[in-house]
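Researcher: We're teaching a course module on how sequence relates to structure. For the next exercise, students receive a sequence and then see the predicted structure as C-alpha cells, so they can try to spot secondary structure elements on their own. Here is the exercise chain.
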Amino acid sequence: MKKTLLIFILTAIALTSIPAQQAAQAAAEITFNYTRLTGSASNQFAVWVEDAQGQHIKTLYTTRWTANGGYKTRPTSIPLWVKQSNLAGMTKEQVDAFSSATPKTSALSYTWDGTNIRGAAVPAGEYTLVLEATLRWENQVYYRAPIRLGQGAANAQVKVEYTTGERDTTAERAMIGDVKVRALR
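Model: And here is the predicted structure for the students to work with:
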C-alpha cells in the first residue's frame, strides 16, 4: 500500500511539473484571428522570428502549400518569408517541422521557445516576431512586433504594413486581424 501511494505521489509530481517546465521555456507568443478567404491565390501565411539585424532565427509556422514548393508556381506567395528563411536551401524534414495545412477560420496562437532553427537557445536581446500573409495574389500584409528577450513579460507594439497590387480589395484585409504579441520572459 505504501509503495503504491509513493508511486502515485511521484507520478503526480512528475505530471504537474511538465507544464511548468514547458511554460518556463516559452519566450514569446503571437495570437491573431484568421479568416479563411474563398478563391485562389490567398490564405498563405508564415510566422517567424528575426534578430535585431533582421536575420531569420526560426520559423514558427507556415502554410504547407507555399513551403512545399508553391512559391515556385506563385512567387507572390509570402515572398519575404521565402527569402528570409532560405526556404530553397532547406530539407524536406526541416520544412515539415514548421509547416502544416492551411487552418480553418479561427483564433490562432504560435509560441516561440527562445531557440534558433537548430534548437539552440538564443541570447537575451532584441528580436522581432513577424507575420506575413498573402491576402490575394500580390497583396501582402506584414505584422512586426519587437520584443526584448530577457526583460520579463510584456506586450509588444505591433506595426502593420499592407502592400497593394492591382487587385487590392479591403475585404481581403479581414484575413488576418487582432494581432497581439507578448514577450513571456
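Model: If you want an answer key for the exercise: Residues 4-24 have pLDDT under 50 and may be disordered. Residues 2-25 form the longest helix (24 residues).
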